[in-house]
Amino acid sequence: MKKSLLVALAGLFVSSLAFAHHNYGMAGCGLGSKWFADDNVTSQVLAATTNGSSYNQLFGISSGSSNCTDHGHVRSAKEATMFIETNQIALANDIARGNGETLAHLSKVLGCSDAQNVGAALQKNYDSIFSTENIKDSKVGESIIGVMKSDTSVKSQCSHLI
Fold first, then answer.
1. Residue where one domain finishes, among candidates 37, 63, 89
2. How far apart, in whole angstroms, are the C-alpha atoms of residue 147 and residue 127?
3. Across the strands, what pairs with 101?
4. Each residue's pLDDT expressed in tens, for the chain with a length of 162 residues
5. Residue 158 forms beta bridges with which residues?
6. Is residue 89 part of a domain?
7. Fewer CB within 10 A of the terminal residue: the chain, N end or C end?
8. How many CA atoms lie within 13 A of 88 on its CB side?
């Protein structure tokens, strides 16, 4: 029993070292990393206990919250998807014109430095993005992100495009 507990703790320690470059300590991301941010042993034990007893790391990892992001990229991708789904009609109009407020906001969410370049690339691919009149919101989002990733000039200027 003692040997398996020691092996488990050693595994936890070694795996946590792999994530030491992030904005949390050895206890990993999660609510505990927010509450007990100090990097001393006591704080990390309390953080690990909080994360383990409240099962919040899974939520943090899947939602991109509680320090569980990849430098904001996961959060930005989710924000972009939600933005596209929420503003699909206005975004379709802006993409058809190649510019507009909704397109500028999408560019900002994805960290793009030139919204006009994004607008031109999406306008050029309007028919493939909105392939049918009743296309599902999620397919529009996938198409928009796909077009942006395939255009090398857009991809290189958008820091949150993953």
1. 63
2. 11
3. none
4. 555 544 444 444 434 434 444 555 666 677 666 677 676 778 777 777 777 776 666 666 666 666 666 555 555 667 788 888 889 999 999 999 999 999 999 999 888 999 999 999 999 999 999 887 777 767 888 899 999 999 999 999 988 876
5. 112
6. yes
7. N
8. 17
